[in-house]
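Known limitations

Structure tokens in this collection are predictions and should be treated as such. Users comparing against experimental data should check residue numbering before alignment. To illustrate the layout, the record for Pyrroline-5-carboxylate reductase is reproduced below. The input appears on top and the generated tokens appear beneath it.
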Amino acid sequence: MSNILFIGSGHMSEAIIRALIKNKVYKPQNILVNDIVKSRLDYLQLTYGVTPSEKIVNADIIVLGVRPQDAWSDIVQQFKTNKIIIISIIAGVTIAQIKASLTVDIPVIRTIPNTLTDTGFGYSGIATDVNDQAVARQRSVTQFFNSFGKLEYIDESLLDIFTGYAVAGPNYIYYFYESLVDAGVLVGLSRDMAKRIAIENLHGAACMLQTSQKHPRQLLDINNSPAGVGIHSLYELNNSDFAAGLQRSVRAGVIRTVELGKKQ
Ligand SMILES: NC(=O)C1=CN([C@@H]2O[C@H](COP(=O)(O)OP(=O)(O)OC[C@H]3O[C@@H](n4cnc5c(N)ncnc54)[C@H](O)[C@@H]3O)[C@@H](O)[C@H]2O)C=CC1
Ligand SMILES: O=C(O)[C@@H]1CCC=N1
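Generated tokens:
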């Protein structure tokens, strides 16, 4: 079995490692982890049985799991063989930027993984240089990507937008859920009951949107009788700048992704 090395083994790398092991794509001993924080390596070894590597060593696939602000450029300059494939999960940093720092011609695939890896839901975006497309179809690479959630192969020009909308996406839902639960508590439900009701409505409404073939406006109409409860509460939501606030929030995520890519 081939090896995979994670350089920068933080939250996102951990979520991918968990998916790789769960889906039997790699055995723990074939997963090498590198990080500047030693306690992080100890934790990952203890939790998943992966192999800590305090030095950067060769592996069939090297995942760049550091942040855009970290020294990714110094890291990739250390790669001296073209027998590896780089998969970068760094938000905002382009394939061209990484290739410009390389001293050897190595294929680079860029992905923006969704943290919903444990659930099988959530789209991760993947982009690759035209010249590297044959490499992207290699078995080990395909297996790596298939292990976490659903994939959307997109042009690299869309990847930053995808990051702010799709990959930051669970944030919007978590925050909406938290606010909704607080609303239930505000009007007098216990937090436990408010949570159960909110999660059920989130699941159910998502199902309706997927299966009913109806436009959300049609579904809203069914829920809003003339001068009734629903339309009164929606009226207040409209007054709160809810839709524009959410849209500004997504746009800020996209803008920040682009900014982060320009940090080095
Ligand atoms: N968390 C998320 O939802 C997502 C994160 N990403 C991307 O994944 C990358 C990592 O994000 P997180 O895991 O959330 O951050 P994190 O801060 O949890 O992990 C980064 C890790 O890199 C290590 N590190 C920093 N400099 C290093 C170096 N020179 N050599 C080795 N290790 C080094 C840090 O000690 C840390 O453990 C970022 O580029 C982010 O844009 C992409 C999609 C989603
Ligand atoms: O905030 C972050 O760094 C990550 C990258 C994309 C979504 N969340």
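For this record: The two ends are 35 Å apart (CA to CA). The chain has a mean pLDDT of 93. Please report discrepancies through the issue tracker.
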